[in-house]
Give the backbone structure.
Amino acid sequence: MNEELSKSIEDRSLDEAMIEIINMHKWFGDFHVLQGIDLTVHKKERIVICGPSGSGKSTLIRCINRLEEHQRGRIIVDGIELTDNIKNIEKIRTEVGMVFQHFNLFPHLTIVENLSLGPIWVRNIPKKEAEESAMYFLEKVHIAEQARKFPGQLSGGQQQRVAIARSLCMSPKVMLFDEPTSALDPEMIKEVLDVMIELAKEGMTMIVISHEMGFAKSVAHRVLFMDFGQIVEGNTPEEFFENPQHERTKLFLSQIL
Amino acid sequence: MEESILGTQTEESKPPITSVGVIGWVKSNLFNGLFNSILTIVILYLLWKMIPPLFQWAFIDSVWYTNGKACRGIDGACWSIIPTNLRFIIFGFFPYELQWRPFAAMIILFGLLFYSRDRKHWTKYLGYGWIAGLFAMGLLMKGGLFGLSPVETTQWGGLPLTLLLSVFGLTAAYPLGIVLALGRQSKMRGLKLLCILYIELIRGVPLISLLFMSSFIFPLFLPEGVIIPSIIRAQVAIILFTAAYIAEVVRGGLQGMSRGQYEAAESIGLNYYLTMRLVILPQALKIVIPPTVSILISAFKDTSLVMIIALFDLLKTTQTVLSNPEWMGFSREAYIFIAILYFAGCFSMSNYSRKLEKELSTEN
């Protein structure tokens, strides 16, 4: 599919951890949604997480930038541990980009304002400079001609690409994707995946929740399968799809493939 | 091929003559069905019965520039009551020879309001303009500086008083209401409880009782010798009252916001204050423009209640004129006049809110 997309082990700086999650638990009321998650994500590593709905995949990545609070265990992002310290949380959030299933663009702002909002107010970059860099990232997601429109005037695929560009404007070190294509019409999925593949080529550290198995095969270093709040198994895409170890993984793969 | 199909379609898709134009409109709006036809005929009959006599009374048999005695013998409206007493109705007991001062203050206020209509003018210089304008208006009303002779607040009255109470009341109540709404949503228990208590207590009593409290009970708690002018006490009561209502409307708007908007704002690193200011409030306040304006309009009209604590607002100065034996009995004319003034105020508010809604709409 693409030769540039190197997945060789040398490409990864294995010794440098970007995200470390150690025995992390979370409850929603009495419901034990995450049951002892251990996960290390290295710099430049790309991980795809799949699993049935309700398995805790979304909750897991939402814990990484503290949209959800974990109740036991540790999460360390780029050397900073997530605690109640609001300054640390805000710092981590500026380094972790997040793309949502439903885009969550700000409907009252134009596309370019959506992109420059964070840089201007969080990074204190002058407005003109922030808009220039916004235009640069809009070019990158092939949507610069829509810069002055409002989100409501764009198609779903375009909105999701804008959402990706909005995260990139904060120059994040990690990008989290929470089912980025599952709210899209089929003909728009490819344009979003293409942007994500380009991002992968540039060496972005990515965690993607997705059931796009073609995407997982071509982009991921590792594919994880989650069920009942646990990471059931994780392996290279080749091994994962050809030779799944657990019964639950086999059952799941047989249902979606 | 395709073009020709499209061409025939456009020709055929012209609506039939009877459904367009004046005839079509009349038919579909006034005479569609037996019941509506009867209704239309009855209403036309009533209008025919009412409008000509009203017109006769207001414009043909009426007098405009006479004294009260001359009005006694005529059938029509005695509009003379307004030009003759205009300065008292508008300015109340403000010293007669100094009435140019409240007049100038109102001109400044209207000028600023008119200039602020356009959102393109909303810059920090307009903010400075308002501050300077407020200072100038205060100076003109109160005097005591630059050779302007001082005028006690007890002598303020009429339209300037009504405008003062409503413009300040509304502009102060709006941000206070927003803060209360945010407080009510807060995760801090104490703050939340305080805001709920405030909102429910204030909404649980009528404005009249707040005004009475502010003028009769509140002074009892003040130390000896401290006197707060009753205008300020009424002003504070109006602000506190209106803010509680605005808070509930704004809360409705906040609840209409999806969780995703908060999360998106947080995930790009905006803190609570910036999330609210840049993402949530601009959307939430826009949703609640119509109910907010309803509250502002009713607050504007409610300022007339201050007459029960002996402030001479527009309504009270008018009633004072009517209690003069010379003009007794011409209340219709006088009340129609101030009704027009109130209507002008309310209508321009609702008109402006519609314009603002249209401007802020981002859907196509």
Remarks:
- Chain A has nine helices and ten strands.
- Residues 156 and 184 of chain A are 6 Å apart (CA to CA).
- The mean pLDDT of chain A is 89.
- Chain A touches chain B at residues 65, 67, 86, 90-91, 93-94, 96-98, 100, 102, 104-108, 117-118, 121-122, 150-153, 163, 166-167, 170 (CB under 8 Å).
